[in-house]
């Protein structure tokens, strides 16, 4: 008992030191959380129970964040996660949620999309929240300020966000240094929980996009469990033109060559994915699918934000702001693109006109996993993404609104959906609405 008391006193001292080093808003937020969960801490010694209390108590911070400017709130959330001042999930994920993709084991299929932790400042804190994977970036070769502020806008009634940040970030050197600090002797970032994705982009003024992506590979591939080529942000001029068939093929070939020329251990190089936009025609999707199959991409992320304004947001004055729309209004559009891409990359008709036996085998085996992103705010939404063809699912806007408590909620609801419909694993449900 004396040992436990001493341990708690030491933890209390550490918390006090952290509080003193924080800005006033951070101290207020953290003090509130500590006060709310203090009773829980002394009432139980079970880590899982205490973890559950922390996630529940974190909801109290949501109104506080809602009062702040969106970008200030975002910055504060990153700072809190970087300092370990967020709940840490101690409860194991349900077995039905576990899966293996690209030889990597995911404890659950719910990930945090790129754009939240652009500069790899809070990887451990975010993974500790219980995400199956976290994707950092997009990271550009050189630091850049991004577009003028204000550049993030809430559409609270619609559960949406518009941003036109423009790849603001610290650049490759800073991000590589942060990831290097987490590197083990095996020269690979190993995290206590979860998988790390690294999303790379190009600088706004760069005239050679491929060279920028190649630099990103050379600097960051060694730290990645998977790599993402982002060619779909609407906030960097000319970027989406790289989704054209010839442009994308040329870019992927150069990026793959850069990755493959590096020295890799027995696990081989990280899988390579491309993130695409939801604002694509059927012909655009056919071209992207053809490139993905021909060049043997390891996956596609569907999708980025949309430049369209669905009817549900048009009455909101904020919808007139330029930039990419994310959140609930994006769900249907991104799901439609997801289904189309699933069919194009794995469907029977795609096999029929292939003259390559190897390609036929790849299609039948489902060799191009898709990550569904866009408008997910519940376990039911995540389940619909999976049934539409996603193997993994990412969230962003809903997390910005709902905070840490949303993560265990989504996982619990997703497991219930799978069990309700008689599925014994994620694999069994993938693409069932496309058959």
Automatic annotation (TrEMBL):
It catalyses: (S)-dihydroorotate + a quinone = orotate + a quinol. Gene3D superfamilies: Aldolase class I. Its cofactor is FMN. Pathway: Pyrimidine metabolism; UMP biosynthesis via de novo pathway; orotate from (S)-dihydroorotate (quinone route): step 1/1. It comes from the Eukaryota. The keyword Oxidoreductase applies. GO terms for biological process: 'de novo' pyrimidine nucleobase biosynthetic process; 'de novo' UMP biosynthetic process. Coiled coil: none annotated. Binds 1 FMN per subunit. Residues 98-345, 365-418 form the Dihydroorotate dehydrogenase catalytic domain. It is an enzyme of class 1 (oxidoreductase). This is Dihydroorotate dehydrogenase (quinone), mitochondrial. It comes from Artemisia annua (Sweet wormwood).
């Amino acid at each position: 008992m004396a040992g436990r008391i001493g341990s708690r006193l030491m933890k209390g001292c550490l918390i006090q030191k952290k509080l003193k080093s924080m800005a006033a808003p951070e101290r207020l937020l953290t003090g509130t959380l500590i006060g709310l969960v203090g009773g829980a801490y002394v009432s139980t010694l079970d880590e899982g129970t205490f973890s559950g209390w922390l996630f529940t108590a974190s909801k109290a911070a949501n109104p506080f964040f809602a009062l702040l400017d969106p970008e200030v709130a975002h910055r504060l959330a990153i700072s809190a996660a970087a300092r370990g001042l967020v709940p840490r999930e101690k409860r194991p994920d349900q077995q039905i949620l576990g899966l293996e993709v690209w030889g990597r084991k995911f404890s659950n299929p719910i990930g945090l999309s790129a754009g939240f932790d652009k500069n790899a400042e809070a990887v451990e804190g975010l993974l500790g929240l219980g995400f199956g994977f976290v994707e950092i970036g997009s990271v550009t070769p050189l630091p850049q300020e991004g577009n003028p502020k204000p550049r993030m806008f809430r559409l609270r009634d619609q559960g949406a966000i518009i941003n036109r940040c423009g790849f603001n970030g610290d650049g490759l050197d800073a991000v590589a240094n942060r990831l290097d600090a987490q590197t083990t002797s095996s020269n690979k970032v190993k995290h206590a929980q979860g998988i790390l994705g690294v999303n790379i982009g190009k600088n706004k003024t760069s005239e050679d996009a491929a060279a920028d992506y190649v630099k990103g590979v050379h600097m960051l591939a060694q730290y990645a469990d998977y790599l993402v080529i982002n060619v779909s942000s609407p906030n960097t001029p000319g970027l989406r033109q790289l989704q054209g068939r010839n442009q994308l093929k040329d870019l992927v070939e150069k990026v793959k060559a850069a990755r493959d020329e590096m020295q890799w251990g027995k696990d081989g190089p990280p899988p390579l994915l491309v993130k695409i936009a939801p604002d694509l025609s059927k012909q655009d999707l056919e071209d992207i699918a053809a490139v993905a199959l021909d060049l043997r991409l390891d996956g596609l992320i569907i999708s980025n934000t949309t430049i369209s304004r669905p009817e549900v947001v048009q009455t909101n004055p904020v919808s007139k702001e330029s930039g990419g729309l994310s959140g609930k209004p994006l769900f249907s559009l991104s799901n439609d693109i997801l289904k189309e891409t699933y069919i194009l990359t794995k469907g029977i008709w795609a096999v029929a006109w292939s003259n390559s036996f190897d390609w036929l085998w790849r299609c039948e085996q489902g060799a191009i996993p898709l990550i569904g992103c866009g408008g997910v705010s519940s376990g039911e939404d995540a389940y619909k993404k999976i049934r539409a063809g996603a193997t993994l699912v990412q969230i962003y806007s809903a997390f910005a609104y709902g905070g840490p408590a949303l993560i265990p909620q989504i996982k619990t609801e997703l497991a219930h959906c799978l069990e309700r419909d008689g599925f014994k694993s994620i694999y069994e449900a993938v693409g069932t609405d496309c058959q």
